[in-house]
Structures are given as structure tokens and as C-alpha cells.
Amino acid sequence: MSTQDKPYSAARMNDAMLSSMQPPTIRWFLLAFILGAIVAVGLYAFTVQLTTGMVVTGINRPVMWGLYIISFVFWVGLSHSGTMVSAILRLSQASWRRPILRGAEAMTVFSIAVAGLFPLIHLGRNWIFYYLIPYPSQYGLWPNFRSPLLFDMVAINTYIIGSGIFLYIGMLPDLAVVRDRSSGFRKQIYSLLALGWRGTAEQWRVFSRGSTLLACLIIPVAVSVHSIVAWDFAVTLVPGWHSTIFAPYFVIGAITSGVAAVITLMIVIRKVFKLEEFLLPLHFDNMSKLLLAVCLLWSYFYFAEVFTTWYGHKPIEWEWFSYMHDHYGIALFIMILGNTIVPIIGLCFRSVRRSMPALLVITLLVNVAMFIERFLIVVPSLSHKNIPFAWGSYTPSWVELAIALAAFALFFLLYTLFAKFFPILAVTDVREQEEALIGQQRLGRTQVETLVNEE
Amino acid sequence: MKTEESGIRWGMVIDLDRCTGCGACVTACQVENNIPLTDRQGFAEGRNLQWLRIERYWEGEFPHVRARFLPMLCQHCDDAPCEPVCPVYASYHTAEGLNGQVYNRCVGTRYCANNCPYAVRVFNFSEPSWPQPLEQQLSPDVTVRSRGVMEKCSFCIQRIRRGKEAAKLEDRKVRDGEVHPACAQTCPPGAMVFGDLNDPDSLVSRMARSPRRFRLFEDLGTEPSVIYLKGGGHEHPG
Q1: Which residues in B have their CB inside 8 Å of a CB on A?
Q2: What is the value of ipTM here, to two decimals?
Q3: Of A55, A125, A387, the CB nearest to B149
Q4: Assigned domain for A362 exists
């Protein structure tokens, strides 16, 4: 982790950090094509569902919600990383956030956009989805504001807009850098996007105030979004869903999967765009500590939820609980392994926190476990509700699987396109930090290596 | 638009000691309400469209077994869990205590079905169809629901409407025993009785005061309008 031997000229740093925006290679086109093809398959599956009906899914009575809602909760969870992590770190002035924040914020925007598709896909009559939107119509009918689904609709839209603004505002100075380095048609577009940013003192003052304010505002939005997703379940009478701990438990679960996904993406971006000199092991170390903390919290919440159910032994709650244990034992084990045992033990070690392959395995495992967790929340509870006569089970159909898979492809496709057309590293933020470091080195007697305390 | 204040609260009493589990009510309901038929596979997949079903439970160990029958239909809860969760007011409460369903409004979130503890809400997974010549006998009083829409027992609201219209023409209130849903009309042992629970002299109210009464999942506080009667321990051993 040597920082001494770098010639810190602004131009060289710009070059290095904007390398992802160089004209696409054959390999990039190939990647985009493969992702696009998977999305197309998902689109075909959706068309089949649209023209035939929900009969092509695995949904039945009593399991009326399936893979679509599971995917929805998963993607909303993933979106919690970025903006929230970035906002918290901005407010706590942790300067090691700088190389991470753009990637994390972009992840938020794209995962919430993907998440927002699922409630529409899962509707029985998708073509009248706009009944959910509060708009004045000649019927004089409004949506039902008491329904958690409407809370959901409002929260998701707020979060998409909020995190979109957060991403865009933070990107303004970098867009100006890109504008200055491009020419022709591209220059015109970036000029428009940069909103006339010239980097004057006044602009910087307004910018820093604005970003701090946005960071303050986005945190309560992020918390409320996943609380509301939790209340979709918790306000019902379904045994196993009706639980007071669901909102905080969901928020922590969301941050767990989000932080893990940010680390995964950091590893990928670092490797693909060769950004080893900007994304340092220290950054991974700090993010891993955050992941460790939220994994501990998640495990505590899960234990608290399960322990009270087990101790209370209320027949109907015990029923879904033992059903889950009997039928989804392996899934339950993978969930505990991926969310509790492996990350908590592994991330205690400094060498693991700084090892890219180990981190890649752990963070992917955390997200596999989080997907399973969502499955175990939705399906077993619905399978064994109050009426024993109507007990059932659920297996997703190929249509649902194709759409769920296409969602992943769509997310990566959007992300790849974003990284190609926008600065994926927060250029000016990083430069500000590195230049501040040089200043420090000149003034001090010793070489300063710490990146944590710049202010 | 003024809400009609008739002071009626529709309800049903089902005497389980009379029910033989014959299934006539199920057939009557199917015919009356234009409910598409479900094949064997549909039943196996849990996609049967039945507004009313007979739940059969076995009690005891062979050879001392006894079948229990529980006709299960929408309980028309006073505090219905399905109503507040619907984002588009497709599930709503009528002034007469019915739990209504507006098919045109339903977008198919299926949230109501998840929140129904009685699992009586059924979903149209595919476009409804009838084998020849059954499509000739559809009732003109009842909408055929399209796919993607949730539906359930309406207490035969079309019959209630007819009864009220007849009463209005003669400028009187609906008489007790004038309106029957298809299931109650058909029930051979007369185990199902329908009427106004707000009228203390109606047959359904008098039966509802029986000491044999109970309602399903009373602890959930849903206040169902369907009251079951069941004798406690006075039967012959199986």
C-alpha cells in the first residue's frame, strides 16, 4: 500500500480513472450481447405470461406470491447498499469512501429500478398497473392509501428519484471533467449533462452543501423503503409474517446484502478496469468491517425472531416453522452458513478482509444466503397458513426462473452501460483526497500513509 | 351518490351436525355463479376455482375413523383482512355487511388472498372456458370474470338484488326467507340458513343464538358473518 511513488498530476489521475470510458472493445460488445440475450429470453417469458395468464407460473392457492415478490425484496435489499453506505460515509467524513461511492450509488439506482419492475410483472392484469397510481380520473376513484402496496409504490418511486438525483448531483464535477476531455457530439451531450459546471468556488460551496443535505435526506428514505417492504408482510395475519421485528430485520438484511454486493462490485471493477492504485486493500478492509457488523446484527435479529417463536410454541406459528425446517432444511442451513457462520468467522481476520478471492467468495455467499432468506420468508409461511385444508407448496416455473434470471442480466447490462458512458470512479473526489495527501506529505516530517484522516 | 341504508346485515348459519358432505352446495354455487370448471390437474396444482368447498377432515385412527365436513365459503368478515390491503379498492365492504369484490377494479396483486385466513379467495389463472354445451347455461345475472382477477363467494349478490327489487316494488322490506343463495337453497338436509342477522326474529338470528354456535378463527378478530353450529360431545362414537 505504497502511496509515495505516484506522480500525482491531475491529468494522469483523470486518465487512469476514466479508463473505463475508452471506446468499447470486442469483448465489451460480446458481454453486452450476452446480457442482452438473457434479457430478451426474460422478455419472451414475460410475453408468454402476459398472453396466457398466471397459469404459466408456479403460483397457486395458498402460495399467491412467489419468485417475483422474492426477487422484488431481494433487489430492493441490494439497493440499500449504495446510496445509504455512501451517504453515511459522507456524513461521517470517512474519506476512504471516495473511490467506492460512485459504483455504490449507481448500484442503488439500477437495483431499485430492476426491483421496481417486479411488482408490475407479478400483477394478474399487468396492463392496468396504473390503477395503483394516484391520478385524478373521470371515475373519481383513488387508490387505497391504507394498503401497504400503495405505501410501497410511493416509497419505491421516491427512492428511485431520490437516489437518481443523489447519483447525478454527485457526478456533476466528473461530468465536467469528461466534457472537457471529449469532443464533437459527445462533448455536446456531456456539456448538457454537466449543467455548466466550471468549478468556481461558489459552485463548490453550493455543491458540498447540496450533497450533504441530500445525504441527510436519503438516509430516512432508505430506511423507510425497506421498512415498508417489510410491512407488506408484517401487517398481514399470515403466521410467520405477522411480526413486529420485521421492519428493522428487513432493513438490516437489506444493508447486509447491499454492503456485500458493493464489495463484490468493487472487486470486479478493480479487476476489470485495473484500478488497483485507487481501490486499496484498506478500502476493502473497512467495508468488510461494516459487513461484519451488519452480519452480526442480522444474526441477532434472526435469532431473536426464531427464539421467541420456538419458545412461545404457538401451534400455527410452530406449524410453518416446522414445515420450513422439514422441507427447506438445506436452504435454511445454507442461509445460516452464508449469513452468519462464514462471514462472522471469516471477516474477523485481517488477512481475509484484505484478500480479494476470499472476499469475493464471502460476499457472493452472503447474497446467495440473502436470496434464500427472502424465499424462506415468502414461501413457507404462505404454504402453511391457518386453514390446514388449503395447505400447499410452491415450485417456480420456467417463466418465473427466466424472468428472475433476466433481472440479473438487466442489472449487469445497465451497470456495464453506465460504466462505459459515465465515470464509474468519483474522479474529483478521489483527486481531492490524493492531492490533500500530497500537501500533507510536504508539510509533515514523515511520510503520511494513512488515508482515513484527511480532514 | 347516497349509500342505501337498509339496516340489513346478511349472514349465514351452517349446522355442521346436519351437513352430510354431499357437495350439492358446491355444484349449485358453481352453476349459479358462472364459475369455470377445474380439471384434475388444476385441483392438484391448487388452482381450483371454487367459491364454496367442502373441507373433509378425518378424526381418529383406523378403524375408528370419522369424517368431518366443513363447508367453507367467504366468511364475509365484518373486519375483513382482505379489504384494507387491496391497493385499488377492488375488495370493499358494502353497507349490508357483504364483502364485495369489484372485478373491473382488480389488478391481481393477490394480496387479499394471502391475507385471508380462510383461504377462500380464488384467482383466475387463465381465461375462463366451459366445455360444450355448458357455456350455453351461463347465468346472465353474473359477470364472467377475466383472467388475472380475484373472485370469491358473493352470498349470491344477484339473488339479494332480485329480492330487494321485488320488495321495493311492493314497498316493503325483504321478508325473512325470501332470499337464498344457491347453496342454501340446494342443501338437501337444510344445513345452511341465510338471512338478516340484524333482525332478531329472523331464522338465521334465532339459530345464531344457539349454544352450539362458533365462528372460525374467532381469535383473529375478523368477526365473520358465517356462524357454524356444532354439538359438543353428544354424538354416537364412530
Answers
A1: 45-48, 53, 55-57, 70, 72, 81, 84-89, 105-111, 113-115, 117-119, 121-127, 146-150, 217, 220, 222
A2: 0.90
A3: A125
A4: yes
